Amino acid sequence: MVKKIKSSEIPKVTYRPPVVVVLGHIDHGKTTLLDYIRRTKITVKEVGGITQKIGAYQVEVTIGKRGEKRKITFIDTPGHEAFAKMRGRGAAVADIAVLVVAADDGVMPQTKESIAHARAAKIPIVVAINKIDLESANLKRVKGQLVKEGLIPEDQGGDTPVVPISAKTGEGVPELLEMIGLVADLQEVKNEPQAVLEAVVIESSLSPQQGPVATIIVKRGTLRVGEEIHAEDVGGKVKALIDDQGRRVKEAVPGMPVAVLGFSKVPSVGAEVASGEKTLPTVKLEAEKPTVEQPRVQATDLNVVLRADNQGSLEAITSAIGGIKVEDKGVSILLSGVGQIVDSDIYLARTGGGVVLGFNVGIAPSAKMLAEDFGVGVQTFTIIYELLEAVEKLLHGAEALKKAEIKGEGEVIKTFVLLSGDVVLGVRVAAGKIRYRDRVKVLRGEEEVHQGRVRGLKRGPKEILEATEGQEVGVLIRPQIEFKVKDRIAVC
């Protein structure tokens, strides 16, 4: 006889609040929209009615006819530059992007950049056509422009939700929030408060009164007051957690934004936060638990961020590049635009595993430093055919642009998973030196599968600053992936 299981006995899957980033062209109403939502949807409980500006906030919305309540977390730092900075450091920041497009201006250069960054992050886009209260609003024209960018509205047979709104009057904003909730349901971001802590720094500063302050969003696990934590190479102990209404709380659960007090210094925006001390524990002879290899899909196209001095040159180069094919491999343009190469171009190229090419343009000093730090190939040209030749060479498998000389190599001979969840690599140095804070590539066979930075080195129980040829050492690399024995580590 088969025993019937009561519905009450089946574990109910719950979902954490989705994290939403608002992107779009300057002056199209990103900040106005965020301010309106914050002002009308948050129940202020502090004396005097003042909420805490921590860079993110949560709202509660009603979804569907059944009136289901859902929380949504908004990152209150609009703009693709900030988002690209987080993404460029490997942080999985947002679950959904809201693209704000003005109903009078339509799709503009930064709109296209925002679309590129959202696509690189592989998150769904909800379009909010703003300023519908203006007489010059033209929804039909804007939707036509969106189609040209590959965002086909649902009412035209596509899968892109498009909601007309006025962030000034509030018209359409409830419908936008409901749409975000519906898209979040399709994402099925599970609520896992018991998991190993995963959080991301979205804002950081040095307060004269409180010291280093970092706003984080918890993605998995639970952060509690008194815990030892680290954000890459910055450690600390949680002295206080402050929510978006200025209240001190004892813990932060998945989807919740909080300001964290207790870091030893200001952590970087986009840094991934984990439990435990930042120092690398002693590597044991046996792994604490086995690692699981995660399959990786090998890319075939060359991903390119393209910049040119004018629109005519940009169109000519884009057309010419589109016709280049080498053994079924072609060029995928992540983003193209007019003007010098800037920081967000480097972040996007790194996220998309691509290179940056410029024609008759310069590179901003900060972007140059980022490219060197991240190992992103950048090259500028003054003759179009030389740019096209470089593209062909890259498609033929030539070495990456401006690739740094390899300074050290090692082979992974063992992997160890610590109680904190971090994976430490047992590495035998085969050539050169591997130093603390070196940027390294992880090679699996002939394929580069990851880039990161050495955040800890140990030989036996002793922490060291460098490992030389022939030594066997414990290496902690961040950000982390599913490492595998026989992976090779190459300093770049």
From TrEMBL:
PANTHER family: TR-TYPE G DOMAIN-CONTAINING PROTEIN, TRANSLATION INITIATION FACTOR IF-2-RELATED. It comes from the Bacteria. GO terms for molecular function: GTP binding; GTPase activity; translation initiation factor activity. Residues 15-188 form the Tr-type G domain. The keyword GTP-binding applies. It comes from candidate division WWE3 bacterium CG_4_9_14_0_2_um_filter_48_10. Belongs to the TRAFAC class translation factor GTPase superfamily. Classic translation factor GTPase family. IF-2 subfamily. One of the essential components for the initiation of protein synthesis. Protects formylmethionyl-tRNA from spontaneous hydrolysis and promotes its binding to the 30S ribosomal subunits. Also involved in the hydrolysis of GTP during the formation of the 70S ribosomal complex. This is Translation initiation factor IF-2.
